[in-house]
Amino acid sequence: MLMVQPILGRQAPGDTATPPAIAPTAGGTEHATHTTEWQWVQSRDGQTVMAHGTDATALLPRDDEVVLVLPVLATSWHQLTLPKINATLLRQALDGLLEDRLLADTASLHLALQPGLQPGQTGWVAACQRAQLTHWLTALHQAGRPASRIVPDLCPQPQPQLHALACADSAWLVSAGPLGVLTAPLSTSIAPDQPAAHLPPAVLGAMLRTTPDTPRQAEPACAGAAEAALDLPFAVQTTAQRLLASSQTGWNMAQFEVRLSAGARRGQRWAQALRMAAYAPAWKPARWGLAVLVASLLVGLNASAWQERRSLQAKRAQVSQLLTQTFPHITLVLDAPLQMQREVARLIRSAGDVSPGDLEPFLQSFSALAQDGMAVTAIEYAPTSIKLTLANPNPPNLQAVRDGLQVQGWRTQYTAPVLSMQPMPQGAQP
User: Fold this and answer.
1) What is the pLDDT of residue 56?
2) CA–CA separation, 123 vs 250, rounded Å?
3) What is the biggest distance separating any 2 CA atoms in the chain, rounded to whole angstroms?
């Protein structure tokens, strides 16, 4: 998984394009947003940082899932009660509801609803400049890193959280809580030698409308300014850690007119599910259970194969023992069933009788079944097979002759003009 966030107000060397303006945030400040540089973080399980950095679009790492994280200053938040209307008319209704709350034309904005928000319910609506969002998505797509999801950096929370972060080359204090996402500048620069500026009293009061144990986190470059402004300690949180946390929310701002390809979404959902199953800590018990199950199956299969092998070896030993006990002169057992068959045939011949594989019984069986037109030009005899060369390659009633020989215990095969026969083993079904 690759999380990318554009760096506001920063252009690559040689980039002279005019940056478009964005919609005002809750703090009421506009910022230039054209960018060719990104902050990125790569993670295998969505919780542990593998690598992070700052690069131009073409130098971003490649990944099967790219999440675009919108900067705090590029997004404004508005709490609304959705009208009970058809979903197809909801976008137009949002324009009317937000017209008096936004300084920009609602037609130029991209809007996204809080996850799970239904008509008639009260919830949050996120707004950002559509041209700017399109610019970022296009840049990622052209670089071969299409976004699979769009999430906000920070979003409203049931319990307030304070963050100090660097955005647009300045230090900002951000409150994410039940009042929405509120921002206020901490200083004009994030340089450590710059004194902290006084926050607007109204904004500061809203941010501090919380309990003393409110979570407070700051990027390393902003921690000093935040602690000086509020006289409160802040825990250090890197940009990479915050971006990872943003990707784990249920938000996806690809709504209404901004749609990512259905195939890409399906593929990336599967990739995300596989990644979570393979690496996420929550899936660790399941992975251990699967490993134990596979190990048990392997042990069981090996044990079963070992037992079958032992049983087969025992049966072979019994047959070999029977052969050597019946015919003591045999000291080397190579193929016990075949050696047994040969010894029985030898005893039959020595007693003056015929064995099933002898030529005489076969000729008697063949002559009784053969009809006119089935003349034999050559006979090839071996102890275990008999071959007849027929004068006619297509003799009449050949199949009837083969069926009759099979009933009498002969296995036949015909390859014109040769008819091959072998006696069936004793006990075999014709």
Assistant:
1) 92
2) 14
3) 124
